Amino acid sequence: MTPNTPSAIALLDCAQLVGSPKDGSLAVLEDQKQYAKFAIPPIYRTAINRMQLPLLQLSHNLIESHRSTIGQDRTDVILCTHAGTDRQLANHYRVSANAMLRQLMQLSSEQTAEQLASLLPTELGSSHDKVGEMATTMATRIAQSCKLTGRAFAIEAGNESFCEAISLAYDSLRTNQAQSVLIAIANDTSEHTTTQRLAASVILLKRCETPITDAKGYLGNVSTCEREALPAHAKSADVHSIVLCNPSVAPVTEQLKTTINTHNIELDHRANILPDTGIVCAALVLNNWLKKPNAHVQALFSNTPEAQTAKTFTVSREFKTIESQEKNTVVLCDKQIWLADRFGAKAYWRGLTDPIGGIATLQHERYADGTLFKASGAQHDSYYCHNTAKLNADEFDLLAQPQPKDVLEHTLQQWQTLNLPKSAKAMVVTATNLGPFIERRKLLAAKLHSLYSQCNEILGIGKSAAHVCLAQWQAQFNKDALSEDFQASNLSRQIAAHFELNDCQHLAIEAACAGSIAALDCAKNAILSGRIDVAIVAAVELPVNLHDLSLCSSQQMLSHNVIATFCEAADGFTPGDGCALVILTKRQLAKQYNWPVLAELNAIGSSTFSKSMIAPNSAGQVHAMDHAFSQTLVKPAHIEFVETHGTGTAVGDAVEVAAISSVYGPRQQHTLKLGALKTQFGHTFAVAGLASVIKVMLSFEHGQIPKNLIKGELRHDLQLSELGYDPMHDDKAYIAPKGMRHAAINGFGTGGVNYHVIMSDFAQ
Fold first, then answer.
1. pLDDT tens-digit profile of 682-698?
2. On the chain, which terminus has fewer CB atoms closer than 10 Å, C or N?
3. Under 8 Å between Cβ of 170 and 219
4. Cβ partners under 8 Å of residue 370, min gap 6
5. Residues 184 and 170: beta-carbon distance below 8 Å
């Protein structure tokens, strides 16, 4: 089946779980046998997010009941969530409290320090907390449990999350990047009452050429429209239209009620009788409608009536194909980046080609006065890391992290970029951690203020250094509690506002360390599906902070010295902060707008293979590479340069080189050049993929592939010289002439997330 074959998108089935009226809880959470059923080892059980079990149960049952229909399809898993899951909150409170108390204890008398020590968190952290708290792992565990091999990632778009997930599913199905998509959505509120219950829902979609007997309905075109245009869906007599509305989140305005009544659109009051389930409510309304035996077309709108634009899609009972999209080529037209002390593309290029890079000795005194640094090795909620690629921002919070929105604002203000058409159908997708620290502390406000009060009582009245320190922590807690800018998707909204984009969708995405490539993939698919004209893909992550340093040290992820990719000394990665952005569009639109074409995005391959949440999987990496090459005329033999994921671990480097050699084979005439960006700027988590994309764009521009900062003796067991692979001790010029250069990028993430990007130097 080719992407242009007329096809339909079947909505196969849906399922849901809603908490009890009494306490909002779900019975499945009390059933310890569920852990064994889904092969979750004991070491993970205290680390995973609470909503993992309900989502696994729903997904497993739905997939198994339709296994004969989806067979061996490439099936994506898209998880919708929001910031502040229970593990994120528990981990952040533990690290924050430990940092504050240790700092106060160091500044106090021995007797006072003993009293403060009694307040230290008693909950022991799991070594797998960093992996367990990530939203991505909920999606990858579903893929692992259900034996699904497509993409797996998590998104957050506030109250629009479910509709954005439908849009992303539509894109991947329409462009034939996936054959099936499982959308999972969960509401994990910090407090559950009779008016706020835990809830989860799953929806299964499939691309098809002929009707599927037991399908619940068929998805129509997905689009974004102005609010004034919504009544158009109600003009036909056979249309039954509703507005997805969760009254507790987004009340229906009088203006919208007037619009609805004027055009005879029915406001779905089933949303009102459903329990308040937050972001899951929209999915529950759809589920309820699908269970009704009627023949109406259903027009569904996003559940934020006050918004100027809305995501719309239709579900019909009758089989209906979606019109074929025109063939497009996606190109990259601009870039901006800030890593460590290198701001902007020119400074970044210098950092790639000089002998220094951006890694430097960590200034421990800036991290709770160095009280959590343990040079001899990490203990409970402490860190051992000596070197990082810290962003040279002006202001940090008390966990030593700059505010992501401030970093993004500075990056945007200094970007002399393209004049984006404000009326273009646009998309902004930002790769980042979906649990911003400011949101965690906002939800923890009562608990943190209680801890402050206890510390204040122990310290008594005074003006000592300990009193000053405590006042600083109180100011931090107060500032966070009053903040309104706490959702990850607000970063995307910030970008859209900066460019004054009127018709724009916004979301944040998390796919562990492959996050920005996952974001790039979603943007590419949206353009190829014809739904979007212009996309801005951004990545912001700042892991050189006490929370991430402590949790990563607990799992021994970090190097005890400095990252040494391909070398005998490799013992983990060096963390780095970063912010990066690129602009994508169709080739013909770039020509119409008179924009420069810096590179062509030939293909992005993906897979989710996992035997373990933390161990790399060679078969999965090979599958992602094969998937990429299946989409383009570019062959492995054409690729001159592969930018590796290169995390600098003994297992990771060996598995990656083995996977590359399986696909690219040995080189005889010209060596295959292997890049390792992390040797210059450390591991920037979600930013890593986009930083590699920009590195490739710059290498095309300069006709030169930057060297790696090799740390010591190369590992003999990698057999790089025997394979004809160049670990790049020095800069090398491209052999191919300008306009005929090809490069590839690996991006991997926790839980078996694998991506492979193929890019070309575009001949004007």
1. 999 999 999 999 999 99
2. C
3. yes
4. 364
5. no
